[in-house]
Amino acid sequence: MIKAILFDFWGTLVENGTYSPLRQSYEILRARMRFGDFVAIFEDVLMTKSYPDQTAAFTEVLKVFKVPIKQLIIDKLIAVWNKNIILAKPYEETIEVLQKLKEKEFKLAIVSNTPSFSIEQVLDKYDMKQYFDGFFLSYKLGVLKTNVGMFSTAIQTLNVSKEEVIMVGDSLETDIAGAQKAGIRAVLIDRKNKREFPDKIVTLSELENFK
């Protein structure tokens, strides 16, 4: 019996405010590597620690990718990520689904790879914190979702067993793989319905089908 639902944030509960900030960062930095490899390194640098400001965060990114530290490049990155924050919004069904799940007394939590300067602003803007019993964020825990420690911390804090939890996310590489590695049932949300996965939904409203 499911007692708790873990949600990815970006692309699952909330729609990005701009075309993939990760892909745009990849293009700005002209990284000479596979996009998937770039994402793993980029997220590890940007999203596993809290920086004093965005300039400090992206300066560190440039160092890791051996890109000349130029303010113009940093400003481009800041512009992309700020636009994403400003224009981000919950998907049409998100708030209604969260309300219904809380009424049914499910424990809800966010498990997200995210920089320190973005997620809190969106949560506050749409008054979303009220629906959640926990926030397990990479920049606070110091690890990404591919590390089982993030999921272990979540289920221990929520006081549930692995068998009583599902993880809902839009990324096979992070949300799904991370949950499965931790022994947690994973549900892929594929809003365009283009990928194959045993437990898949195309809208959050379908979560009521999972018992």
Summing up helix and strand content along with how strands pair, one would put the structural category as: alpha/beta
Distance between the termini: 6 Å
What CATH calls the topology of the largest domain is Rossmann fold
* Spatial order of the strands forming the largest sheet: 5-4-1-6-7-8
The largest sheet, given as strand count, sense and whether it forms a barrel, is: 6 strands, parallel
Sequence-ordered SSE layout with sheet pairings:
Elements (H helix, E strand, L loop, with lengths): L3 E4 L6 E2 L5 H9 L5 H13 L6 H11 L6 H17 L1 E2 L3 H10 L3 E6 L6 H7 L8 E4 H4 L6 H11 L6 E5 L2 H10 L3 E5 L10 E2 L10
Parallel strand pairs: 1-4, 1-6, 4-5, 6-7, 7-8
Antiparallel strand pairs: 2-3
Structural account:
The protein is α/β, with parallel strands linked by helices and 211 residues long. It folds into 2 domains: 4-15 and 89-209, HAD superfamily/HAD-like (Rossmann fold), CATH 3.40.50; 21-87, no CATH class. Helices cover 44% and strands 14% of the residues. It contains 9 helices and 8 strands. The protein has helices at residues 21-29, 35-47, 54-64, 71-87, 94-103, 119-125, 138-141, 148-158, 172-181; strands spanning 4-7, 14-15, 89-90, 107-112, 134-137, 165-169, 185-189, 200-201. The strands form 2 sheets. It has a 6-stranded parallel beta sheet, sandwiched between helices. It is globular and about 55 Å long. The mean pLDDT is 94.
Question: What's the short version?
Answer:
The protein is of the alpha/beta class and 211 residues long.
Task: Note the main attributes of this structure.
single chain, 211 residues, alpha/beta, Rossmann fold, 6-stranded parallel sheet, two-stranded antiparallel ribbon, 9 helices, globular
